[in-house]
């Protein structure tokens, strides 16, 4: 049994990253006729891990199901970024336990993802949730089949708290055949003081550009229209490697594969170069959309967060992007209620939100994560005040989201149509180059295509339009 350890997870000692080319073959009949239920929480990285987990389960013969009542195995792919993730996990585990006790004693229950990398969580699972069969960490996904094949009577736990390797030859069961996630880098070395990710996902490790390009070329060959390059700190790509492309150079190389749309998440303002801005401005297939987390508008709080930029530096970068890339949409993440955030600090955040008029933003109340430096900071601000701040910030964010969307009214914009709208089956939905969600009439036969759409209505979170 391999258990997680926060001190191990903190270490950054290994210079070289091991690039491991997997060559795994499994007996597809082993679990033939059995079904898996996979639930994924959290960020795009987790969603993409979910696509790997699905492929691994299918390599053993499992088929997917969307109810736990019909499943032989349930896997919960968890997120650890905020405390409420814990509530979601335990709520769902309760349902699985009930199902196992009442209806299906052979149900295999598995937990993976970022929470599986947390010392306290695994300890709790051992002591209080003996009905959980397997736990595997973010560094152990490639061992999933072996864990299932060797499943024994006891809990099978395998969570390395290591700096991590880079695995190649991974198969994915992609959720879409139109757009695809492509990992370009794993882990994070920034250690922002509030964030658990550097502990749960290990050191920053970039994939080799040759492997990334090979993957994108294959996606083009398969008919994919869009790739999103993924990394916790996507624009720090390659920095830890000698003789590797910079992120801007990688963007150009991906653009040259001819894929129709290229996106990337998540950028750190500190690693944003002029070369990147120029590249996004010049390459038509690199989408004019940048997610640029602000986190706080107060330079004092940014320093305590370990973000490596001031309010002024953020604004300078923001203006440079806006002035160089026409019609670029910029979205952000903001945390309110970091320990001892004063009214003045919070007003700085409101001011930046007023100045930037973001296209949209994810806003959060700070949530202490065990093992991170910020969790040790004393905090005199009560939750009610934090909630009021979040509410106030959201009002401004929503006002400008609507304003940004209204600029699209009566314009004709390119939309990649992805599928039938969930709310109204007479419509399809897709995204503009600037990542605006559009519900479109008259385009049932256009799924998988980029078409011109005239925008007829604008709301805070979506647009309506009709195909021309
Ligand atoms: N509390 C609240 N929000 C957090 N985020 C990361 N860690 C925390 C935390 N401890 C937010 C950041 C990040 C986004 C993915 O989640 O804004 O950009
Ligand atoms: Fe977390 Fe900061 Fe790394 Fe983003 S850059 S994953 S916020 S430590």
Account of the protein in words:
The structure is a single chain. 32% of the residues lie in helices and 22% in strands. It is built from 13 helices and 21 strands. It has helices spanning 6-10, 44-58, 84-102, 119-128, 144-149, 197-200, 209-221, 247-256, 274-282, 299-305, 311-324, 343-356, 383-406, and strands at residues 19-21, 35-40, 63-64, 73-78, 108-113, 134-136, 156-158, 166-168, 179-183, 185-186, 205-206, 226-230, 261-265, 289-291, 329-336, 360-365, 412-420, 428-432, 437-441, 450-458, 463-467. The chain has a 6-stranded parallel beta sheet, with helices on both faces. Strands 17-18-19-21-20 form a 5-stranded mixed beta barrel. Strands 9-12-13 form a 3-stranded parallel beta sheet, sandwiched between helices. The model has no long low-confidence stretch (mean pLDDT 95).
